[in-house]
């Protein structure tokens, strides 16, 4: 009889404590993995925005070579400005039909002041002038 009791006890399976302990460990591991994946994704989106800003800035530089000034808007990289009286515009300077949105579905921001200009993404918070803005 002692032999059959040992056998029965060995086959009974996991206790409730053991199952709960395994679940707690899985939840902890899942949260660690989730946080690290989110961090990697955030870095990838920021890198994509920075690369896109740099591409837009390159297109603006080509525009300036022909027009001797920065474009009034990013649309002038795609369509000839109406004030191009000397037919200096040799564009389009951007290959696509529109300037793309940033990775957070916001328009890239552009300011021009004479020969100086600035292009940036508003970043994840979608607000301009904050810490997470992304410049080239």
Automatic annotation (TrEMBL):
Domain of life assignment: Bacteria
InterPro entries: Bac_GSPG_pilin, N_methyl_site, Pilin-like, T2SS_protein-GspG_C, Type2_sec_GspG
Ranges of residues in domain Type II secretion system protein GspG C-terminal: 37-133
Compartments where located: Cell inner membrane
Keywords: Cell inner membrane, Cell membrane, Membrane, Methylation, Transmembrane, Transmembrane helix
SUPFAM superfamilies with a match to the protein in the record: Pili subunits
Chain segments annotated as transmembrane: 12-40
Family: Belongs to the GSP G family.
Protein name, per record: Type II secretion system core protein G
Gene: gspG
